[in-house]
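so ive been stuck on this for like two days lol. basically i have the seq below and the ligand is adenosine-5'-diphosphate, smiles is in there too. i just want the complex predicted, nothing fancy, no docking runs or whatever. if the output looks off dont worry ill sanity check it later, just need somthing to start from for the group meeting slides
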Amino acid sequence: MWGNPVPRSCCKRLCCNLKAENLTVRYDDAVCALRDVGFSVRDGERVALIGANGAGKSTLLLTLVGVLPAESGEISLEDVPVGKETLREFRRRVGMVFQNPDDQLFMPTVYEDIAFGPRNYGLSEEEIETRINGVLDRFGIARLRDRMTHKLSGGEKRLVALAGILVMEPSVLLMDEPSSFLDPRSRRKLIETLDKLPQTMLIATHDLDLALDLCRRAILLDEGRVRADAPIEEILSDAALLESCGLELPLSTGHLR
Ligand SMILES: Nc1ncnc2c1ncn2[C@@H]1O[C@H](COP(=O)(O)OP(=O)(O)O)[C@@H](O)[C@H]1O
Ligand SMILES: [Mg+2]
């Protein structure tokens, strides 16, 4: 089984091997959203999960955290398969930030919201307060601690939602379209914040410039299948491949061509 959480300074041990094999997912109405998807994310890697609308990015992330059941296939973390007995611990170690922070924030205040996860896992109030203050400081949002969550700006909500996941000290972060709903300044701040984190990351996005800023590798999904899994610069400079998957060359790849 997985080891205990490790100190944040021990970056190497935070890295985890997340693996998916032969994942096939079908919705109730028989839409086959993922077909035989396989990949692994290793050693503190940050991997961009890219693809046009409807390619299956959100479905893949939701399946990885057990929100959607897979018709077939296997998911494992450090070679431990995810199943009924391991799902709770897997969810503590693999944190997911949803596309819309309003789906994630549901307690009245920022503090209460971030405290929800750790309380659920039985941490002491003292430990919870120390962790929350730490995570708020790290994101430069200590001033938001006692604010009402529903009155925050889009960028603030996004950071609070991320803080609510990081307070659990996960090894792996899954993020669904982290830059959606953000103005350019909040987007830049988010990128800088993510760039400083040690966690292994799988970032679903059609913000190809963000992907290029944060990730060295990309997995390109098209109609529920993996079309490419390669260094991101290689994928993002292949105009024909991107076009055939309904994507365009990102603005910042000028230097790649
Ligand atoms: N709740 C749902 N019920 C039925 N089909 C869905 C549902 N959610 C997504 N889909 C379908 O599954 C496919 C993949 O969608 P999704 O994972 O949301 O793609 P992406 O996140 O890449 O835009 C699409 O064809 C979409 O229409
Ligand atoms: Mg999506």
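The chain has a mean pLDDT of 90. The longest strand covers residues 32-41.
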